[in-house]
């Protein structure tokens, strides 16, 4: 029997679930929004109702000062959206609260992955492989050149630079939601339990992670410490602060950045990064293709990144696929 999955419509500003008249990660205000996670290219205020995990709703309240119409959905919970559509939030492994959304209607199953990764992360549950008819997958790092190294190797580079330069600090630029907390948790897992200093813009999100049970150890603000006390320590800041006047208060900082884009040497040079750390919260090429193989959908819809290479891979492997043209989804400082 032919299947066209016409009940779900990709539009430039989001994915429209037509029988229930709701949208997934819309880039403009709508009456009913299903949100996969809290990053600004997926979450925003102004919706009538917002369905998301409790963690994502807390992140949205903190970042966008919005909680009107909030409808919390825990992992594994199935809710009826109306119009014969059921939705279930499943772990995506991207950041705290991140979820895939499984939609079921008329015997068909569609999964919208949102952003995801397959690597273990001490700050959020791992990605859950779930069979479906259509897999709508991100492709941020959807080129064969992107193969992320083990995070243990990158953390070891960071700690070696710290040990080799006891009179300096290592200043790490990291995205304020997800990357910073994962980096800190991985450094703790590697046995580093010294104080980690934070730029003021990082503190509230780190405290929110702690409220949800993520142990980040001893954290202090740079503004509350003397310059000499910060020597021999890790400092975490937004990428925009790496070469800002703010960094002049630090003791000869070694500039580092934690991002999957540090695989691209030109990006590291552009940001004047001495110590590039290839740490990503997105799936790399091998993870993207492995996920398609394991989920084994009837069709794969590709969005948010390098769609052409993923589309070609699907074609070469005799898999039905198409690229979507959504707007408002940008490369983050991942």
Automatic annotation (TrEMBL):
Q: Outline the extent of the Metallo-beta-lactamase domain.
A: 19-175
TM segment ranges: none
Superkingdom as given in the UniProt entry: Bacteria
**A single GO molecular function, which one?**
RNA endonuclease activity
The family database entries (PANTHER family) matched by this protein are listed as:
BLL1145 PROTEIN (PTHR11203:SF49), CLEAVAGE AND POLYADENYLATION SPECIFICITY FACTOR FAMILY MEMBER (PTHR11203)
The protein here is known as: Putative mRNA 3-end processing factor
